[in-house]
Amino acid sequence: MRATIGELQALHTIGLDELLKNDELVSIAPIRGYVIEEFKSDIIRDIPNIDIDEYMEKLERDYQIFHSLKFNIIDRVYSWNEDRGLLNGGYNKSLEASFIAEELSELLRNDESIEEVDSHIDSIIFQLGALSKILKSPHRVKRAFEIVLSANEQKSSQKDINGKIIKDKSNFIEPQEALKELLEEVV
After folding, report:
1. Structural contact between residues 183 and 91, judged by C-beta atoms closer than 8 angstroms
2. 110 and 40, same structural domain?
3. DSSP H or E run through 56
4. Same domain as 109, residue 18
5. What's the pLDDT tens digit per position in 4-13?
6. First to last CA, the chain
C-alpha cells in the first residue's frame, strides 16, 4: 500500500507521533495538480540540506507504520477488557501468565492447524489484554509495539545455531529505555 501525496503531506506536516496520538486515520486528499516533484521542492525549501530521497523513504516507512498500527486488534482487545471491567482490577502477572501458558499448552497438545492458529491468536489476545492493563491505553500499547518492532528491525538476518536472529551489536539499540519512558507516562 503506497501513500498518496496528501497522506505524505500529513506525515510531513503533522508527524507520525501526532497522527498516532489522534488515533484516527487522517485522510487528506491530494491538492489538485500537486505532484510529487512539487512536494519534494516544498520539503527542500522547508528543510535545507536534506537528503530528499532518504526523507521520502522515511515518510513512506512512517506511512506503513501508521497503517500497520491502525489495525484495530489492539483497540478491540482493549475495549473488550474495558467493557468487562478487567482493566479496573489491574495487572496480575501470575494470572496473566497462567492464561498465556494455558494457550501455549493447548498449542503443544494439538496437531491440527486450526487448533494451532486458534491457540496462537488466543495467546496474542491474552498478551494484548495484559499489556492493556499495564499500559492503560491502546495508544500506549501501540507505541510499545512500535518501540520493540523498530528495535527488532535493526537486527541482522544472521541466525544463531538455534535459528534465532542475531542482534547486530554495531547498530542495535535496545528498546528498554524507550519502554521505560513510555511506562513513566502511566499514572
Report:
1. no
2. no
3. helix 52-69
4. no
5. 666 666 667 7
6. 37
